[in-house]
Amino acid sequence: MRVETVDLDDWPGRGLSDEELDVAYNVRRKAGPELFERHMGRYRAESARAVDGLPGHPGIVYDEASGERLDVWGAGGPDLRPAFVFLHGGYWMALSRHESSFMARALHGQGVATVVPDYTLAPEATLEEIVRQVRAAVAWVHRHGRGHGLDPDRIVVGGSSAGGHLTGMTMVGGWQAPLGLPEDVVKAAMPFSGLFDLRPLTRVYVNQVVGLDLPRAAALSPALLPAPRRCPAVIAVAEHDGAGFLAQSRRFAPHWDAAGPLVVPDRDHFDVVLDLADPGSAVFRALLALIGPRH
């Protein structure tokens, strides 16, 4: 991954103390243990309800090298459906596809299929390997989607938190051609509470697990990577998100030439993405607008 010329020692928040950076990026501490567990319970329960009885193809190995799997939900019928590929969060070291399909039923009702990949969690995998895997998941949808009711020419990627970062790493250029993919394989994107410049994380608790230095953090930062084609995108973030996540979304949206960011009122870092399960919500409507006509 090639990084545009940047000063590695000049990044947003560099002048903050380690404690101030932790406050900005430790959203689990901000939520507190009781609220955090309640949110995780909602992820699990709403995902289980969303896929109960829904047509699908769970547990498909999409990457032979790692053996990682994905689930396809809400496909079927005579017509190919647009694919919303959702990349879960968890600071690259937690959660799975099983807590991450809560939007599948609502999207199915609108003629859209949901694809939810797993990826190997840190520290078992490096962040470079995690990025490789999620790109391989997009490649799988493009190459094999037709056989599972997916339209390979209508792939939209989204994700929350660390998944927002991974979404950004599918938005940038330079990785598509080596995988034999068209540059516009990702037609649109919707990162939630994403991390687009990873340099601040080199001084945050999560780095004890992901182990980044400044050059690697820069090389894995969507805000610093070439993007010759800028796909349509909605950069979403919660009103009550961590200060670091709010700042990152506010910087990345104009960098990407996107309107926004879409700041969702009365939501925090963990529940904002659950609005994707609500057809009446602003984020659900924004996602459908990105996907475009379904028929």
Automatic annotation (TrEMBL):
Keywords from the UniProt entry: Hydrolase
Transmembrane segments: none
GO molecular function: hydrolase activity
Hydrolase in keyword set: yes
InterPro entries: AB_hydrolase_fold, BD-FAE-like_dom, GDXG_lipolytic_enzyme
Domain (BD-FAE-like) ranges: 81-171
Alphabetical list of Pfam families matching this protein: BD-FAE
Keyword Hydrolase appears in the UniProt entry: yes
PANTHER family membership: AB HYDROLASE SUPERFAMILY PROTEIN C4A8.06C, KYNURENINE FORMAMIDASE
Protein name: Alpha/beta hydrolase
